[in-house]
Amino acid sequence: TDDDTFSNMFCGNSKKLIDVHLFALAAQYYSMSSLGVSTPLEDLLEALRGDNQGKTGIKTDEFMNNKKSHEVQVMSELVDNIAKYCGIKQVIDIGSGKGYLSSFLSMQYNLKVYGIDSSNTTTNGAHERNRKLKKHWRAYQSRARANVESQRLEKANDRPVQSEINCKAINEKLLNKTSSLQHQDQVTIQDLAPSCGFTGIATSETSKQTEVDLASRTQSDESKLSEEVLAILNVLPADAVEVFSSSRSNCGELCEEEKEQRKMASLKAKASKLRESNLYFPLTSCITAETELSDIITDLEDCVMVGLHTCGDLAANTLRIFTAKPEIKAVCSVGCCYHLLSEQFENQEDCPEEVWGFPMCQYLKDKGWCCGRNARMSACLALERVAVGQMLPTESLFYRAVLQVIIEEIYGVTKSDRHVGKTFSKSSSFIDYVRKSLKKLELDDSKLPDSCIMDYYEKYKHRMNELEAFNMLKVVLAPCVEVLILLDRLCYLKEQDNIAWSGLVKLFDPVKSPRCYAVIALKKQSCF
Q1: pLDDT in tens, 165-185
Q2: Quick one: which of 225, 348, 386, 523 could link to 229 by a disulfide (CB 3.0–4.6 Å)?
Q3: Could you tell me which of 491, 486, 495, 488 has the C-alpha nearest to residue 519?
Q4: How many Å apart are CA 149 and CA 143, to the nearest integer?
């Protein structure tokens, strides 16, 4: 397929769309899935892990909605693998909001997480939510202890030989996994980008200590826990469960066991010192491209920077901070709210020193490329949801369109810095919607009688089908605009000299989470 094939969708003279089917095919052709520019998540995880497999975590839907649960489960596993690959334990979550991702990374993966959000209210809410989540972990701890004790009582006197063999095999597998973790520096991402020259990253001392801790704990547990109990341990932080000793049969074994107990006590003492590092710290700060992280985080060290649905320019600034700060070794950013991006060439303003959300890469800057607000608004739509029957909110869109006519014709306003927001869901009728919206826009509604408002409604209601058709065309075009914005961010990373590998990775099910692509990058080993 080439550009000439798609040129016939518009009239040569009027430039109007005349072939909707061809328009849909062109939009599909230029979408992310068809362009083949993204890296499969499975390939990236395999390259990061080597021979290691991911762990089975707790079910986050116990304390999150389905959408957030899906996002946090997938992204936290990836971030943990990136952190292990880089041999680091600190994570900075930009735009952390209520702390869903931050708290899960901290509790499930024993990572030291700083969640930074500009809203003090949100940060305070994250503190409270994190406190409640810790109770969740205590419940799992109590359940694990009860199950361990039950297993011990049931099998202490008459444990089948086969059970001993199976349990030993499980522990050997865990030991092998630990051994593989100790050789992570042999893992490369050359399979994903052979030309990038990314040759691996040495494991840090903190990571090595964690591996020794895991190996010692596994050895002391051998032949004591069944496969079921190991599964329970797997959903807890590394230091969450006390290990119960099995029954003793003679003095020789007792002596050996005492040695193991002393060794375990020593390891637990070290673990308790490290426990404070495995925390989540919500912080309040406004992040820009010029932000000095060391001013916000006093113990800043080598870290991974993440962002789950960072809004507008924050996604672009996350990438700029990543490339500029030597402490940040990797980034995993999923952006959203494209309509709030600032554009350098949108208003033809000459502000060369200004930092803009779009474009980021030099190629589009040289072209003077501009999307415009309407296109960016379209990029926020969810084609996959519409495809499975989750239709657009036609009535609310119609309300907003008629309101626009009213404020232009009655008040002479064509542009405003204020927003109507989610007024539709709080309104009992069109009249109520208009009056609440005018108040938000700080326009006097007293000169506008109810009859006048309804006249506008009646005048345009027969065109609601046209509005729906127009919005469907916008939905079809949405993936094309989104891929332009995402490729701009990827090209920006490709232009940097200190990046070993960068790519676009589809993390989420787009029906559950429409903004499903992450921009991921790792710095060169020489930058460590």
Answers
A1: 443 443 444 344 434 433 433
A2: 225
A3: 486
A4: 10
Q: Is the pLDDT of residue 233 over 70?
A: no
In this prediction the pTM is: 0.70
CA pair distance 289, 384, nearest whole angstrom: 33
Give the pair of three-digit tokens for residue 390.
């989750």
Written as six digits, the tokens of 119 are 């809203």
For the stretch 350-377, pLDDT in tens is 666 678 999 999 999 999 999 999 999 9
What is the topology classification, in CATH, of domain 23-137+276-380+478-523?
Rossmann fold (3.40.50)
Alpha helices in 50-198 (DSSP H): 66-86, 100-109, 120-155, 161-181
Predicted confidence (pLDDT) per residue in 387-435, tens digit: 998 888 899 999 999 999 999 999 999 888 888 989 999 999 999 999 9
- Tokens representing 234? 């797997």
How far apart are alpha carbons 139 and 77 in whole angstroms? 22
Contact 299, 241 (CB under 8 A): no
Burial annotation 58-76 (CB, 10 A radius, 16+ → b, else e): bebeebbeeebbbbbbbbb
Domain ranges of the chain: 23-137+276-380+478-523, 390-461
Nearest to 411 by CA among 450, 447, 372, 435: 447
What tokens does 90 get? Answer: 């600190």
**C-alpha span between 343 and 359 (Å, rounded):** 7
